[in-house]
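Form P-L/3: holo structure prediction, ligand zinc ion.
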Amino acid sequence: MRTWSPSELTAYFWTQINSGILVRPVCRSCGANFFSPQVLCPSCQSDSWEYEESSGHGYIYSFTEIHRPPDSSFPSPLIVADIELDEGWRMFSWIVGCRSEDVRIGSRVYVTFEDFDAGTLPVFKIN
Ligand SMILES: [Zn+2]
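OUTPUT (holo model):
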């Protein structure tokens, strides 16, 4: 069984983000796509999984609007969304580049990358 420290578990994800590539864990035993990265596959508990590149395309599963962002480098209002990617996995992120009144559950989105004080983060734009 592989052993991970938290930084080992996520280092490849962040390296890829800094290169403008979105990846997610894919289980070699059962084929599940999942996120966030975990030691064991949440579907079958196998430790045999690898990162694979995502298309970065998906849709808004749900969202909310936050008027007090975590720090001044974030936009306000901040539209936090639960994104369902086309490979069947979900991640929380932000919707950028549109007015909050234009955001709808089910809207198609694609990933892009923006620099915040905390570092480069994957965010999404409406198609
Ligand atoms: Zn699995």
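COMMENT: The pocket of zinc ion is lined by residues 27, 29-30, 32, 41, 43-44, 46 (CB under 6 Å).
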